[in-house]
Amino acid sequence: MRILVSNDDGIYSPGIAALAEVASEFGEVRVVAPDVERSAAGHSITATHPMAYRPTRISNLTAYRVNGTPADCVALGTHHWEGVDLVLSGLNLGFNLGNAMWHSGTLAAAKQAVLFGIRGVALSVPAGVDQDFESVKPWIRRVLEIVIAEPSLTLVNVNLPRAPRGLLWTRVSVRQYDGRIVPTTDPFGRDLFWFTVKPLEAADEGTDRWAVEQNWISLTPLRLDLTDELQLSAVAQRRPLDRELAAATSPSTSSPEAAKAVRAEEAEAPVER
Questions:
Q1: Are residues 36 and 145 in the same domain?
Q2: How far apart are alpha carbons 29 and 63 in whole angstroms?
């Protein structure tokens, strides 16, 4: 098995070394990660300038640093190393719970893998320089054993508390959002703003946040399709819009010309003729 390991904390984070070391027990490992910290980068990609792909050394593993985002790293890593079976992202230094998944560069690396048809797993641990990676490695090993044995799970978000009691399957905690703006000023009195977090109340039972609050490892299966199927079905019945006209006049599959034109407009580039 070929396992690509990435993160958003940067190539020299102790978390990525710990994850890669455990992953090497399950297959051939290559590390490709940002050259600097890219926390909260989300699923951004670099499209306005070229990127560098440079070898480096981490725990005697094959490793490369990239001047790009976590998603860039997975794209470049799978480009240079064909036949990747699994992408692991982490260990992120700080949980990715609930709505934090929208901002998470750690989860973005795993999502990018799924876009390429490769399974992706994001793993996070508590923040802090006092993290004991040796004690968490057996739990990482158990997580990987479980996830690898379930090939139908294409995207999984994992959060490991400091002193785990065991493992639970969970859903995403979306009841509350922890982001907030904090105003401040610079030495000249000009307005500045921090985008930071606020404390949250206890989460609902069965969610990722609830599990970690109770010292359980949270394993949350995710999907890339954000479609609200119930709302789609209901609103299509109430307001069918131009469904009959579309069915009568539009093919079930777009022509290559139509597809190329839309792709060009997505990229804001001229249509190739």
A1: yes
A2: 9
For residue range 74-84, what is the model confidence (pLDDT) as tens digits? 999 999 999 99
Residue with tokens 């070394």: 17
**Is 180 domain-assigned?**
no
Q: Are residues 50 and 147 in the same domain?
A: yes
> By C-alpha distance, which of 241, 219, 119, 129 is closest to 168?
219
Cα 63 vs. chain centroid, distance in angstroms? 20
Give the structural domain span for 246.
229-266
Separation of alpha carbons 200 and 179, rounded Å: 10
Task: Name the domain count of the chain.
Answer: 2
- The string of pLDDT tens digits covering residues 112-130 is 999 999 999 999 999 876 7
Q: Is the whole-model pTM more than 0.85?
A: yes
- Residues 25 and 145 both lie in one domain: yes
Residues 43 and 11 sit within 8 Å (Cβ to Cβ): no
Question: Does any domain span residue 88?
Answer: yes
Q: Show Cβ contacts of residue 230 under 8 Å, excluding neighbours closer than 6 positions.
A: none
